[in-house]
Give the backbone structure.
Amino acid sequence: MLAISDLHVAYGQSEVLHGLNVSVAPNEIVAIMGRNGMGKTTLMKSLMGIVPAKSGSVTMEGTELGPLKSYERVAKGLAYVPQGRMIFSTMTVKENIETGLVASGETEVPGDIYELFPVLLEMKDRRGGNLSGGQQQQLAIGRALVLEPKLLILDEPTEGIQPNIVHEIGDIILRLNKEEGLTVLLVEQKLPFARRVASEFCILDKGRRVAAGPIGELTDQVVQSYLSV
């Protein structure tokens, strides 16, 4: 589904990702992990074309993404939920979701979005800025899902969210993966959440891949070496 090969990404003269290699197979849920400042969010932004790559290759289903604008990557089946959610605070819940419909040309919010997130139906006329952090995260995911993506990118989906909503989001990710075949790439700091939802993991340290494999191989020794503060 996604192949990242020898990817170098820099902000000006400061290189953040140094020859990164990551692959994501169809129907996998891959957790990108690492301490703060190791390049995880930079990787997500680079995949979406927000931060340009210095060199290397990123292909999705065999198509090179490098020359494509962000909106063209969305048209190929990429959807992105950024860190901090980035919802439109003055727009209603329904209007926020509708912004995701522009790419598909649809005008009505699909009923299955409200079925996945009942709270969004209850609050569809409320301003996004009046929702709790967990509700805003559900809104951001719902907005991405109306694109009917092949690959959903989630950057810190559990950050600052109450435990019961974290569990619900995990349930939804697993359900979409199992029932719809959705492939997911997520940045995650919470170890229990990553172990629960992911099938594979990849750990970044100073912009390099230092460990990767099936989630069952994310041992305490690996955690202590690369994730413990």
